[in-house]
Structure formats: C-alpha cells, structure tokens
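Example 3.2
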Amino acid sequence: MKAEPAGTTPPLRLFAGVRTAMLILAAVTALAGPAEAQIFARPRPGPSGAPPGTPPAEAEIWPFPPPDPQSWWDEKRPVAPEAADPLGERRLGRGQRLPAIDNGVDAATYRLWGLMPLQWQLLREGEMILEVWVRPARNVRQSIVRITLRSDGHGFVQGRAGFACCEAGIGRRIGFDADLPPEAVKTFLALRDDPLWQAPREVKEVHDAATTDVVCVSGVGYDLTLLTRSGSRTLHRACDDVAVGQVADALEPTLRAALGHDPRFDVLFHDRIDFSLERQAYRDFVAGGGVLQPRPNSRAQPPGSEPAPQPEP
C-alpha cells in the first residue's frame, strides 16, 4: 500500500470524522431545550409584501418612507365629485350679490356638516336649492337633505345626519352626494312656484276664539328653505299634524329622494317617508274652516342649533 504524504488525512478517515461530527450535532440539538434549539435552527424567511388590507397604490411601493410633512400643504388633492359641490367654481357676475339666507344657519355650521354654505351658492336663472332640516324634539340626532337643480337640467341630492351635540364636531356624522334621477327633477321644479312658500314662517292653528297654542315636547321639527336667484324663503313646522301637513308636498319628495343611498341614513326614517296622515289632517282642517295664522313674536331655534349643557341635578 502506498503511504500517504505526511500532514494529510486519508479520505476514509476524513469522511468518518465529518459523519461523527454531524451525529454529535444532531444529538445535541435533539437533547437541547426550545431556546437552545433556536440556535441550530435555520432562520425562517420573514413576511414579505404589504400587510393585508393595504391599498393597491401603497402596496406597490411597500415598504415606503413616511411622507414629507410639507407635502401635506403643497401637494394637489383630488377634486371633489360634482355631486358634492354642484354649483362649484362659479364667480359673482357683474352686479350680482351673494344671497341673503334667512334660515338662521351660519356658514360655519354648514361646514361642520360637510356642506357648502347656502350663503355662498350662486344661482342662475331657473335654478333652485331646496333644503330640509329634520330635528326631533327629544334627541340631537339631526338630518339634512339638500336638493340642487341646475339650469342644464341636472339635479343632485345631498344627505347628512349625525349628533349635533356634546362634541367639537358633528358626532357620528354620515353623508352622501348623488345625482338626482331625471324624472325627479320635474317634481322639484314644480315646487319652486308652489303657493306654500307664501305661507307664514311659523304658524298656529285657529279654529275659534278658544284656540290655544300647541307646545312641541315629543314631535319632530322641520325647517324648509327654498333658494332661487331672486332670494330665499324659510318655513318652520313642528309637531302639529296640521302645520306639517301644509308643507307635506315639499317634505315628502325631498326626504324620499334621500332614501336608498346609505342604510345608516334610511334607518332614521324607518326606510319609508309618508306624510299622508298630516296631509289629510291639513285638508280636513281647511275644509272645516280652520286657518293657519302667523305665530306672533315667535322664532324657532335655527336648524343646526344644539342644546346648552344642563346643570347636574
């Protein structure tokens, strides 16, 4: 047999040594506890890709560095959809003035609700805005519906609802902006010249000399505002079926137009709008010789108002 050079290890002995070392390592790993076993375990690859639910645009560049704070102020933002601001980007014409709104709602209140203030709406000939505020007497869960008709024949409906109390903003505010079906536009155009807008702002029933005022403690108040190029007109009706029935022809289609866009809004009206009882009560009242007269020295709280904090008992 040929002798191996000095300083070298025969192949068989080398293989046997490696095999023995591997067996020893396996035995140590088997006898080691969980913490020690992690030393010998192969590292598992970490999670790759964006977390579940990441928007596609963000997932493409994941992971991404935090944005430059200055970009919050400098970068352009998406333009609001047309239904969110149907009369946007208009400028005052020569001799034109901003409308005077008499419903008592200031511009800041409209902004809290996510609506363009009526005070800033520039209407052209033939255009109109019909707005209804709904305010239950026993809670602060208010809702608003606004109908906008443009001179190009397009109509829009906007709805808002939320708690108008006890927070810096409108609590649990929801809203939607949508196109109005073409067939509904004709219905609202007919309301623009309805005689109901000539009625007193607030009324009381008069049957005879013994008639007394109705005090609203558990009903619902409605504030209706019609805005046209020539000006605005507001009516307030609350609790009394006869008084509400007088404006039912405007209330019913306006509130119905807001259903079907957001279930959270629909549940406030139990998924239906029906003023047939109030309408009939008003007709019977008039047929019996009753008269709705202006309520003297009375002006309801403006829509959007909230109760002041009450003292502890």
